[in-house]
User: Which sequence fits this backbone?
C-alpha cells in the first residue's frame, strides 16, 4: 500500500488508527516527492514476475495529493511497464474531495475506488466527522453520486463499531438499496486503548465492536444475503468463507495461514511490515537506501509473516473452524484462551459463531460448485426447504 500523504487526512474520524502516525514524522510536509514516486514505480514494477500489477493508494486521504500527482503516477506506470504487462490502480478515499475532474480521470484510467461509508446518516456520522467535528454523510454521498454518474467502478468499506454493530440489516440494506453497492467489505473496529497509537495492551476503546456483537452483525447480514443476493451482491467475508469451504486460499490476509504481503510504504519511502504495524519496531528500511524487493524478501519480513501461523495458541490449533479462520489478524491477538494461553484473537467468539452458523449453506454452495452449478442456487433451495 502506498501512503503518498502519509496519515494526513481532511477528516478526524474518532476511531482512525492512522492519524496518530503523524507523530512518527515530526516536521514533515507529508507529501511524496515525484522523485520518490518514480523510484518506487520503477522498483515495484521491476520486481514483479506476473502479467498484472496493481498499485494500491491509501492514506490518510490520498486525494489530498492533487490530481496532477496521480496523472504523473499513471505516466510513470506506463513508462516502466514491461511489454505485455497490465497495470491497475485501486484507491481508498472518504469520497469528500471527489469532483467531476477526479471522476473523469478515474474512469479514463480504470481506477477501482473504495469509499468509506459506515451506513445511513446517523450510524455513519457517529464517528466519521471532519476536523471541525462536523458530520460528513451528505458530502460522502455526493461523492458516491459523482462516481455513479461517471461510471467509475467502486466498492464500499464499512467499518463496524459500537454505533452500527447492532444494526446489521439497516447497514446492509442501505448500502445495497440506497448506495447501489455491489461489492462490500465489513471491517471490524478493534481500537487499542493506549497513549501510543501502536498495537499495545489488551484494553479496547468504547468505540470498538464487541466480539459477540461482530459475530451477530455478520450473521444478520448473511441471513439476508444468502436468501436473496447471492451472485448479485458480493460481500468480501462471505466470498472468502466460501473459498475456505472449497479448500481454496481465502485471498484475504487476515484469514490466510501466514501473512506479510500487505506491506506499507510511507510518504518518504519508509517501508513497514503491515498497514496495522506502522511502528518503529516494524520498519524494514527505506527504498532510497535498500531495494524494495530485498526488504520484501528479507528474513525479518518472512519471520513476521510466518509468526501468524507459528504463534497460534493450542486452542486455535484444535478449533473446528481453523480451516477458514486461521486465527484472524495478528493485530487482534491480544486475548487469552479459556485455559489462559496468550494469543487468542479478540474477535474469536464472533468469528466462531459466524463460521458455525454458515456451515450448512456453505456446504450446499460448495456442492453446487463441485457439480458445475452456480452457488446462487442456494436461494431457491432455501425457499423450498
Assistant:
Amino acid at each position: 500500500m502506498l501512503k503518498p500523504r502519509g496519515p494526513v487526512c481532511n477528516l478526524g474520524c474518532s476511531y482512525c488508527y492512522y492519524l496518530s502516525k503523524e507523530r512518527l514524522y515530526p516536521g514533515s510536509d507529508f507529501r511524496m516527492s515525484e522523485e520518490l514516486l518514480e523510484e518506487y514505480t520503477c522498483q515495484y514494477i521491476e520486481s514483479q514476475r506476473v502479467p498484472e500489477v496493481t498499485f494500491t493508494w491509501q492514506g490518510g486521504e490520498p486525494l489530498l495529493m492533487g490530481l496532477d500527482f496521480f496523472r504523473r503516477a499513471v505516466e510513470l506506470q506506463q513508462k516502466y511497464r514491461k511489454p505485455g504487462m497490465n497495470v491497475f490502480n485501486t484507491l481508498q478515499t472518504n469520497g469528500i474531495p471527489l469532483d467531476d475532474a477526479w471522476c473523469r480521470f478515474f474512469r479514463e484510467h480504470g481506477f477501482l475506488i473504495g469509499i468509506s461509508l459506515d451506513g445511513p446518516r446517523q450510524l455513519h456520522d457517529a464517528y466519521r466527522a471532519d476536523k471541525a467535528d462536523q458530520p460528513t454523510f451528505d458530502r460522502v454521498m455526493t461523492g458516491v453520486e459523482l462516481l455513479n454518474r461517471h461510471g467509475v467502478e467502486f466498492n464500499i468499506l464499512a467499518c463496524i463499531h459500537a454505533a452500527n454493530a447492532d444494526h446489521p440489516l439497516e447497514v446492509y440494506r442501505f448500502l445495497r438499496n440506497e448506495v447501489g453497492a455491489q461489492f462490500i467489505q465489513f471491517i471490524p473496529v478493534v481500537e487499542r486503548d493506549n497513549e501510543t497509537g501502536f498495537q499495545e495492551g489488551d484494553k479496547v476503546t468504547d468505540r470498538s465492536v464487541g466480539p459477540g456483537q461482530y459475530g451477530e452483525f455478520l450473521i444478520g447480514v448473511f441471513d439476508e444475503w444468502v436468501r436473496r443476493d447471492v451472485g448479485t451482491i458480493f460481500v468480501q467475508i462471505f466470498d472468502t468463507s466460501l473459498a475456505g469451504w472449497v479448500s481454496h486460499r481465502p485471498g484475504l490476509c487476515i484469514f490466510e495461514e501466514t501473512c506479510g504481503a500487505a506491506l506499507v510504504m510511507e510518504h518518504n519511502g519508509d517501508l513497514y511490515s503491515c498497514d496495522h504495524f506502522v511502528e518503529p519496531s516494524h520498519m524494514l528500511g527505506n527504498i532510497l537506501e535498500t531495494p524494495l524487493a530485498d526488504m520484501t524478501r528479507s528474513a525479518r519480513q518472512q519471520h513476521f509473516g510466518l509468526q501468524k501461523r507459528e504463534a497460534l495458541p493450542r486452542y486455535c490449533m484444535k478449533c473446528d473452524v481453523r480451516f477458514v479462520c486461521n486465527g484472524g489478524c495478528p493485530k487482534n491477538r491480544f486475548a487469552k484462551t479459556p485455559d489462559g494461553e496468550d494469543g487468542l484473537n479478540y474477535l474469536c467468539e464472533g468469528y466462531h459463531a459466524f463460521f458455525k452458523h454458515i456451515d450448512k449453506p456453505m456446504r450446499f454452495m460448495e456442492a453446487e460448485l463441485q457439480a458445475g452449478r452456480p452457488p446462487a442456487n442456494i436461494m431457491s433451495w432455501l425457499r423450498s426447504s
Summary: The chain has a mean pLDDT of 97. The first strand starts at residue 52 and ends at 57. The two ends are 45 Å apart (CA to CA).
